[in-house]
Structure formats: C-alpha cells, structure tokens
C-alpha cells in the first residue's frame, strides 16, 4: 500500500503536491491547515503512520462545523472528473483566482482546475480588485463562500463583474444575496456539494455531467457519480454506512422544483420544540428576509423544559433584532411556535477557516 505524506497547506506547497498526484509522479498527500489546532486535527484524521487505502491521491479533513472532523479519501480520477465537469458547465477551461484556503476542498479544486486547464492560478493579494486585475486568461473564474461575496459586493463590485463565473459554495446562498448579485450584474452560481463529492457537483440546482441525484423517502439527498470520494480514512464502518450501491447518503434534505434541486436543510435541522416540529432553516430564511438583519443562524439547543430550545444568533441593527420584535417577524409568516425562544445578538457570526459558520462553537456558548 502507498504511504501518505503531510504537506504545508500553503498554495505553493499544495499546488506542487497536487501536480505530482495528477500526473502520476508524486505520492498521496494530506495538506495541513495553517493554524496549530487545525493542523493537529488534520494530522490525526490523516494518520500518516498507517497504511493508506488503495487509489487515494489526497486526504482532506472535513471542517467539523457540526461534528467530528473526518479524513476524506479523494482519488486522482475523482479530482480530475470534478474539474472537467466544472469547465464543461461553465463554457470551457479558464484561469482561476484563489481567494480561499487550499486545504479545504473548494480551494483544492481551484488548483486542480488550474492544473487540468494548463493555466496559472492567481492568489488573492491585498485586495480582491488588485488580484482580479492580475489575471490574464481569456476566461476568468473564481469561487468563494457567501460571506466573501457579501463583502466584495460592497467593496469590489466592478472586479466581480469582470469574471465569467463565480461559484458560490461552502454554505447555502441566501436569496437576498442572490438577488443583490444579480442586480449588480455579477454572475454568481450557487453550488451544492461537499468534500465527499469532490467540491460542488450541482450548479444552480442542476447536477454536473457524470453526477446523478436522488431523493429517498425522507427527502434525503443521495448522490452518485465520478466525483465521489472513496471513503473515510480508516473508518470502514462509517464508509459502509454512507456509501451504498454507489450512492452517497448525505445529511441534507432536498426537493425538486422544476427539475432543479433545492436544498431545504440538514436531516437534523428539524427539531421538536415543545412538542412541535420546527424546521430551523425555514426560521433562519425568514430572519434573513428582515431588512435590518445582516446575517443569522438558527440552532436547536437541548432544554429541560422545551426538549429543544430554538435559538437565533443574529447580526444586525440593535433595535431591529430585539427578541420580541424578531419573534413577531417570524410569526407573520410562520407558526408562532416556530419563533425562537432566545435571540442572541452578535457583531459577526463565528466562522471556521472553510467559510462555514462554527455551529459547534455557538452551541457550546449557550449550553
């Protein structure tokens, strides 16, 4: 069996290691985050001193936004298939700007697409506008998380408009943000996917070529295709639980609207609070419709009285996010029982390096 080496998670180191596994000259690797705690988690998940499963090119550590980080095994074939399918959907290969960390799948795939296309990726400099100006490709692409798009629409809208496509992943793209990007003339394409699917595999609700989706009786999203991971590092029981007959059983629920996939939330986003089923993502979406709410996340917290207490963490104008006012706002369109019992105002939602909200950190702060 092959051995696994650890590499620094800097763009140059990851690009060099990635080039080696894609052309067959290098050895499988696991990139380490640039913070000590993240590097320790990644090294533990990668287990470099243990024999490596066959066919693996890269081991990526999941962000751990809602649970224990896992080592995800990605093959050379899956990485290339994802890059090629992305270029086919976007209209052809191009040059990519890297505004995210390359030790997460979104950043890694920007580098993969660059290598497959034979183009030189541009790294994010002091400003997004300066970085965009450094690009020379006939077609120009980038990818980012919703939080970045929100910020750049305020400061770098002209630069955003210069890209042929901007893939938005890592978290769902709120409808107000989608509308704002469209109004600004920015081609922002919401993508659905995860580390286990080799990055985004569904663009604007439509699967990439080579990818199939299915909804089971619980509306759980199942995914099959050439970009799927091979399994979890040294976790055969967990691999067998989520990979069945070639289908990956995600933790997300969805629905098909005009033959397009709409992700409606995680399987565990429906909680029972006071005997009532509450869909947390629906409450969150309603809060984000408030004109003075800039960001929000809604979580269920174990509670002796309610079973699960619905807690909203909100960023916005202080007067607008007073508890009773927001409960009334939610109740205008949703059942009163869905209104959050607690509202916690924050200056900003805590984020992981992957661009996802640190849900575990928020939960630990209120338990």
UniProtKB/TrEMBL annotation:
Organism: Kribbella pratensis
Cross-referenced InterPro entries: AMP-bd_C (IPR025110), AMP-bd_C_sf (IPR045851), AMP-binding_CS (IPR020845), AMP-dep_synth/lig_dom (IPR000873), ANL_N_sf (IPR042099), ATP-dep_AMP-bd_enzyme (IPR050237)
Domain of life: Bacteria
Annotated Gene3D superfamilies: 3.30.300.30, N-terminal domain of ligase-like (3.40.50.12780)
An example molecular function term from Gene Ontology annotations: acid-thiol ligase activity
Domain called AMP-dependent synthetase/ligase: residue spans: 35-207
Protein name as it appears in the record: O-succinylbenzoic acid--CoA ligase
Domain AMP-binding enzyme C-terminal: start-end pairs: 284-356
Signal sequence segment: none
Keywords, comma-separated and alphabetical: Ligase
Pfam family, one: AMP-binding_C
UniProt keyword NAD, yes or no: no
């Amino acid at each position: 069996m092959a051995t696994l080496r650890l590499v620094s998670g800097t763009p140059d180191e990851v690009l060099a290691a990635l080039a080696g596994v894609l052309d067959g000259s290098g050895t499988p690797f696991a990139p380490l985050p640039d913070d000590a705690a993240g590097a320790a988690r990644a090294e533990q998940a990668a287990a470099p001193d243990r024999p490596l499963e066959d066919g693996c090119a890269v081991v990526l550590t999941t962000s751990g936004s809602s649970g224990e980080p896992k080592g995800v095994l990605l093959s050379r074939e899956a990485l290339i298939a994802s890059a090629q399918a992305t270029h086919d959907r976007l209209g052809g290969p191009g040059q990519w700007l890297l505004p995210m960390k390359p030790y997460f799948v979104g950043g890694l795939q920007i580098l993969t697409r660059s290598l497959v296309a034979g183009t030189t990726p541009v790294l994010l400099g002091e400003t997004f506008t300066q970085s965009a100006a450094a690009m020379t490709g006939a077609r120009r692409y980038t990818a980012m998380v919703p939080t970045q798009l929100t910020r750049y629409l305020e400061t770098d809208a002209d630069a955003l408009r210069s890209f042929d496509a901007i893939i938005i992943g890592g978290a769902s793209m709120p409808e107000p943000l989608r509308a704002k990007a469209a109004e600004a003339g920015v081609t922002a394409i919401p993508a659905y996917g995860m580390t286990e699917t080799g990055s985004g595999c569904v663009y604007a609700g439509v699967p990439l070529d080579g990818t199939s989706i299915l909804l089971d009786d619980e509306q759980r999203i199942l995914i099959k295709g050439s970009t799927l991971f091979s399994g979890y590092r040294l976790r055969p029981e967990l691999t067998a639980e989520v990979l069945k007959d070639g289908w990956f059983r995600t933790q997300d629920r969805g629905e098909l609207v005009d033959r397009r996939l709409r992700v409606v939330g995680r399987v565990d986003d429906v909680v029972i609070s006071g005997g009532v089923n509450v869909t947390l993502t629906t409450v969150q979406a309603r809060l984000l419709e408030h004109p003075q709410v800039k960001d929000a996340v809604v979580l269920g917290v174990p509670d002796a009285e309610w079973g699960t207490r619905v807690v909203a963490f909100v960023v916005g104008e202080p007067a607008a996010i007073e508890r009773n006012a927001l409960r009334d706002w939610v109740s205008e369109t949703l059942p009163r029982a869905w209104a959050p019992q607690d509202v916690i105002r924050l200056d900003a939602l805590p984020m992981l390096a992957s661009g996802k909200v640190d849900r575990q950190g928020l939960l630990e702060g209120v338990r």
